[in-house]
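R.M. (postdoc): so does anyone remember the format we settled on? I'll just put the structure tokens first.
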């Protein structure tokens, strides 16, 4: 079982201690994670229960409840993005009470939810087709819509990170034999012996140029093996 930096704070903690080292007492702060927008308290069940179910810590019944929550959340997000809100006296009175601009033209409900002064719950009277949902689902719908742009950006960063994580390095490699690496990078890589290029990229003293050298070296190594 591996919990990576994008799935949990404990994954961040373990990776930091192994990859970066720590001479002082280590304090786990949210600022240590580059993916903290994904590592929220409200979505801990969505992030970690699949792993818990896979290793037998979460029952089938609990996991089915989670799957139902995720299904309802995604269905409601899709619905909200399709709902149009027309200007009216009532909606404009509500928006004015929230200290935000009134409507002069129709607008998608999801666009209104993205306004910082407006809430998903507060818009319920103007959303006639809204199904009855639990507080957990409502909270997820609001957060996923409100921060959608930032969340998608971080998910793209995670995908790029996992591409590097998928490029495995060979245990016991003598990095002093790889041409192009800086001396500091050679020393750090030999000491830590990272399992992947992704882990190597997070080592203090290994810069993007060194990562590029490792990627080229892996490709050459792959070509040489193919010729054998």
């Amino acid at each position: 079982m591996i919990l990576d930096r994008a799935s949990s704070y404990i994954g961040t903690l373990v990776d930091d201690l192994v990859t970066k080292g720590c001479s002082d007492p280590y304090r786990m702060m949210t600022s240590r994670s580059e993916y903290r927008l994904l590592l929220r308290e409200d979505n801990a069940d969505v992030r970690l229960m699949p792993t818990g179910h896979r290793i037998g810590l979460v029952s089938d019944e609990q996991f089915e409840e989670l799957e139902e929550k995720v299904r309802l959340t995604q269905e409601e997000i899709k619905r909200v993005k399709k709902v149009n809100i027309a200007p009216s006296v009532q909606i404009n009175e509500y928006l004015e009470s929230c200290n935000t601009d009134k409507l002069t033209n129709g607008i998608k409900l999801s666009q209104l939810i993205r306004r910082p002064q407006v809430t998903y719950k507060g818009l319920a009277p103007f959303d006639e087709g809204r199904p009855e949902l639990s507080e957990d689902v409502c909270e997820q719908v609001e957060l996923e819509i409100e921060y959608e742009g930032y969340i998608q950006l971080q998910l793209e960063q995670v995908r790029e990170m996992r591409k590097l994580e998928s490029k495995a390095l060979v245990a016991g490699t003598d990095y002093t034999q790889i041409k192009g690496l800086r001396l500091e990078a050679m020393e750090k890589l030999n000491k830590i012996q990272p399992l992947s290029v992704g882990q190597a990229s997070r080592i203090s003293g290994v810069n993007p140029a060194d990562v590029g050298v490792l990627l080229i070296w892996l490709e050459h190594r792959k070509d040489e093996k193919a010729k054998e």
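R.M.: ...and that's the designed sequence above, right after the tokens. Also worth knowing: The radius of gyration is 24 Å. Residues 167-227 form a domain with the DNA polymerase; domain 1 fold (CATH 1.10.150.570).
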